[in-house]
Amino acid sequence: MVRRIAVVGAGQAGLQVALGLLGVGGYEVTVVAARTPAQVRGGRVMSTQAMFGPALRVERAAGLDLWEGQAPGVRSVDAVLVPEPGLRAMEFTMTLDEPAQSVDQRVKMARWLELVEERGGRVEYRELDLAGLREVAAAHDLTVVAAGRGELAGIFERDDARSPFDAPQRRLAAVYAHGVGAPDPAAGPRARMHAVPGVGELYLQPALTLSGPCDILLWEALPGSPFDCFGDRPDGVEQLGRMRELMGEYLPWEAELWTAAEPTDSGGSLYGALTPVVRRPVAELGDGVAVWGIGDAVVVNDPITGQGANSAARAADAYLRAIVERGDGPFTAAWMSEVFEEFWERHARHGVALTAALLTMPDHLQAVFAAATEHEAVARRLANTYAEPADYAAWLATPELVGAYLASVGA
Length: 411
What we know:
With 411 residues, the protein is α/β, with parallel strands linked by helices. The chain has helices at residues 12-24, 37-41, 53-61, 105-118, 130-138, 150-153, 236-250, 252-255, 308-326, 333-360, 363-372, 376-387, 392-395, 399-408, and strands spanning 3-8, 27-33, 50-51, 74-81, 89-102, 122-125, 142-145, 171-178, 190-196, 200-209, 212-221, 262-263, 269-273, 277-278, 282-286, 289-293, 299-300.
C-alpha cells in the first residue's frame, strides 16, 4: 500500500523528510511550498545556518550534502571577550573534530525543492491557511508541518515547562558580504566569535552564497543596547555601514577586515527577533485529523549556539526513521507525540538548554570560558558541545559538573 505523506513548508526539516521518503520509496509525497525555487533564489536570506559535523553526516548519508568542496569547511572558531570598547581579553581558539559548513538557504532549499520533483515528488506552490491545512491533512495519511512562522506555526501549543523564555533575548541582524579580510589568510577558513558583555555578540563565519564564497556577520544585540540599532530595517548597504561603525568603536581589529566589504546582493541581509520556545508537536484540527510539527514549528532556538538548522536536520532524520518503521501502522496523535518525545530526550532538550545557558551566561559557564583560554582540551570540548549538544548534560549543565570536569583537566 502506497502511503500518502504531505509536508507543509520547504525548509531544512520539511524538505529533508520529503526527500528521505522519496529515497526510501513506496510513498506518495506532496510538498506544499510558499515559493518556487526561482523566488527562493531571488529572495532575502533566511538564516545563517552553520551546520556542524553530526548534522552534515545525516545529510551526506541521505545524498543531500551537495556542496562539499564548494562551501568552506570550518574547523576553528576564534573567541574573544571584549570587556570594554577596543579591549581584547580571554582569547582562545576552539577546534571542531569535524568541519562545519554554511550554505545560504536560498541556494540549498531552492535546489532541494527541485530535487523533490526530480525524484518523483509533487510540489504545490501556494500559501496555506488553517482551512487549507485541514483540506491537505484530510487527503493524506500523514501531514508534517514544517512551517515555523505565520498562522500555521501558531497551531502548535506552547509547552511552558520546556520554554525557557517568554520574550526575545537578542535582536538579530545579519549580512552576507564579499571582500572581508582574514586575520590570518594562511590559516584557512575560520569562524570568529566576539562577546561584548551587556551589549551583545558578533559571529562571523565563511559561507557559500549565490555568487560564491562569502562571509556572514551575525549581530546578536541585547535589546536596548548600542548594538540594537537596526529596528528601522535598513537595506544591506546601510546595515553594513552601521555595523562597520560599531565595530570601529568596539572591535577596531575586526573593522579593519571589513573596510572593503560589500553586501553580496540586495537580498543579502536580514533583521528580526525571535522568542526561544518549545511547542507541543501535535495539533488537532477536528474530525479526528491531527498534524505533526517539526523543526522551527515546534522547537525554536536563538541562533547564538547555531542549533536551528542542526536540530531541524536531526529531527528530520528521527521522523523519517519513525515513519518508515511504522510500516502500515496508523499515524496516530499518540504515536506522533511518542516519536517527538524520543527526539526531545535524545537531542532537542540539550540544544535548548545549551542555548539558554549561552544567552544568560551563569557563573559556572563563565568559568569554562575562562579555563578555555589556558587549556586547549576545555576549548575543544566546548566547541564540540555546539556540534553535539547532548554533551552539555555531561559536563556543563551544573556548577558541580563543571567543577568536577575542570578539576579533572587541572584547570
